[in-house]
Fold this protein.
Amino acid sequence: MEAYTDAVIAMAATLLVLDLTAKAIGEVDSDAQLWRALGDVWPSFLSFTISFVLLSGLWVIHMRQWRDIARADLVLLWLNNGRLLFIVLVPFTTSLVDEYSEYFAGRVLLPINFFLAVLFGVATWTWAASRGGHLLAEEAKADAPSQTLGGIVAVVCGAMTVALSPWLGSLAFLTYGLAGPLHALLTRVRRSRGNERAR
């Protein structure tokens, strides 16, 4: 299952580059025209870069999850397949941003796509960590609440991205940069409350 997920994410990341072909540049007759044409396709480069970075982030999360998941059941398999459904849609929704960014749907479908991929990723981990960590490796059970909290933070950042994308476009994806500091803050608050209860 881990190898299959790796392969699907790698395929989606590879397909992203198909919109960055020489055909997008058009016909040029000089170096100056080529540089100008390359400058004109910067939105495509930006969309490609954002999608590639976010796909890479989803892959890193997947690798961390499967380091700690020891067993898989049917529910986990289908939750992971749900995540992969939205991951393979990323090249398509990225191309919509390139072609139709002047329309609301063109701007919002890529953030929605990533939000749903993140949501299924969080659901995958939440299921594995439920019932006392019934699918987790024994050594991972103690850290499960912190990882669950991190997933909730990622979902919140994804929802913020969806809400801001109609106005900010691709810049809305910067909200994912808040995930690390927000997770650290909430973890600190949770630990301090736990310490107060222990007293």
Residues 2-198 form one domain. The chain has a mean pLDDT of 88. The radius of gyration is 20 Å.
